[in-house]
Amino acid sequence: MAKDTVFQKKATINAGGTLIDLSSPKVMGIINITPDSFFSDSRKPAVDDAVAQAERMLADGATFLDLGAYSSRPGAENISVQEETNRLLPVVEAIVDRYPDAILSIDTFRSQVAEAAIKAGAHIINDISGGQLDAEMFATVASLQVPYILMHMKGTPQNMVQLAEYDDVFTDVFDYFVQRYETLRKMGVHDVILDPGFGFAKKAEHSYTLLNRLTDFDMLELPMLVGVSRKRMIYGLLGNSAQEALNGTTVLNTIALTKGANILRVHDVKEAVEAIKLWETVCGIE
């Protein structure tokens, strides 16, 4: 039950032949197949651990599982395409084998990794770079005909902190979405989901401005993914840590729902599903 606006956002995506209705918000669970992601509890580099995490998240109500084998935290190591693929594919194959109906999103900015994962049974590409770090990404997504999550970021995970400067962060991100989406549309990509990229080349005040103005992105009439889970924008403001940021995450997720978020990308699926259920119940009372 998205917030009513004068703009009619695209409400469904086709993920591997499954039509998913995003007019009622959905949850995407994060599984990091990495040894160094910023939230230690999300690190599941062993195949068995990743599959067990997938089982928990699906049982808790996740519609999507987002698998990433390249840490995008600030200053993360730049691993090779081969290493990223070697980490990722065994987990994709194991989850597809165990849970064939699970909808898998692949968190990568590399077209070779994206293509290999889709051919192994994944369904969605989640690209932190919006196609800027691999010139072949848009063509690959168009060829594969899969949904694409278009995120805003400047630079790379290695240097994005130094690039967090804007005259008007909303206008910059909005214009970026307009330009990148137009290219994708002309290439025949049908299902595009927007992600403002909270914390990626953005100071906390930039991220909070974007969250406050989330509804204004509805002018683009595309679904919106919000990923604020346990990020520095929360624990830096509250003076705690990523491990202590669940309550803050739930608060910001609830605000995002009131501003039209269609997908919550989270480490803690159960709490996000509960937030959506409570929010929809309140909003459904006449």
Quote the distance from N terminus to C terminus: 13 Å
Tell me the Rg in angstroms.
Answer: 17 Å
Number of strands: 10
Number of helices: 9
Class of secondary structure makeup? alpha/beta
The overall pLDDT average reads 93
Quaternary state of the chains: single chain
- Classify the beta-strand content into a percent band: 15-25%
In the sheet with the most strands, the strands line up as: 8-7-6-5-4-3-10-9
Q: Name the shape in a single word.
A: globular
- Tell me roughly what share of residues is in helical segments: 25-40%
Low-confidence stretches: none
Task: Tell me the series of helices and strands, N- to C-terminal.
Answer: EEEHEHEHEHEHEHEHHEH
- Sheet with the most strands? 8 strands, parallel
Characterization of the model:
This protein is 38% helix and 15% strand. Strand 6 (124-127), helix 4 (137-144) and strand 7 form a beta-alpha-beta unit. The chain is globular. The protein has an eight-stranded parallel beta sheet. The protein has a two-stranded antiparallel sheet with strand order 1-2. It has 286 residues and is an alpha/beta fold. It has helices at residues 47-59, 81-98, 111-119, 137-144, 169-186, 204-212, 232-238, 246-258, 269-283, and strands spanning 12-15, 18-21, 26-32, 64-68, 103-107, 124-127, 148-151, 192-195, 225-226, 263-266. The protein contains nine helices and ten strands.
